[in-house]
Amino acid sequence: MKNRLIALALAAVLLLALAIPACADTITMYVYTENGKSLNVRDGMSTSAKVIGTIPFGGKVDTVSEHANHWMEILYKGQTAFVMSRFLVETKPAAKPTPKPTEKTDREKELEELNKQLRSLKPLADSVNLVVRPSRVSGWVNFRVGPGVAAARIASFSDGKMLQAIGETAKWYQAIDPETNRTGFISKNYVTVQPRLMGVTATNTSEQLGSLNVNGKFNLQCKMPQDYTLQVTNMMGTQINANLNPTMAGKPKLYLSINFDETYADVARLNDLSAEDLAVLEASFKEMNEVDISYTETSHGTKLLVARETGNDTDFVDILSIYEGYFIEFVMAPDENAADKTLTDAQVQMCVDFLSDLDFIPAT
Length: 364
What we know:
Helices cover 15% and strands 42% of the residues. The chain is built from four helices and 28 strands.
């Protein structure tokens, strides 16, 4: 009986020795993860094995043996467990590393900018006409579903394409393509805003030619002669052409033309031209026609050059002004159906009176 008890005791000691490795056989190592996070401890040598605990960055680990598949057998809370050996070092780390900020990809940056522009989208109180002016390199510009290059392309437009803007962000217009009635976004870098006629309002004695906004630069205001109606024929970029049509037969016609002239880019008003510059301007009329040159002023003190052609089969009066680099010209000519193609003094005076209330107001 005594011998049997001794045998059982020896067997128990042997089983205990096999289950728990002796501390003398372990090697101390430490957890080092590049992101400073804790290391998972598993019950098997696989990332799908059950996680039975974690060891913090810099924590002590009693290792037993390293296996060929890069797993380290360790002693964890009195039992055998496993961790990935590449996260263990022999020397205790000095400090936990600071996580590096994740570098955003180009796509992530594009999406971030798209969302920023979408959040800032505001509707326009009044729609604005746009003219596409694409890149000189490609010759076209994209019309997109959202205000950013991350948004899908609806179509590509070439030079001169007309759109109607209904909203805007800092960098994009939300616009309607009148040909397809589709709504999309186009970069402000590749469009020109058309000048916009604000409307005609009635007065007791005549009609008011509203406020003609010229490319966001200034507003042109003046009263129309009685019995005349306004028809804008072209509003493209920095150029405006309009007809003032008489409602009664035989009356002379009036034409309005506004366009930017680099020659006068630095001229605030015609008043600022020197006598030499005015002589050059007068010569441009005399080269092609026999004209009488005179000057008048508007009620706002803006000088007007008046050139009247006489002695030919047809007659005309040309009145022009210059403001902020824009060449503004009014031409009166007899109605082509009139028997007499010569303008009367009263008609010429009507043209001058028409411009007497002309005014230039800086755009706000």
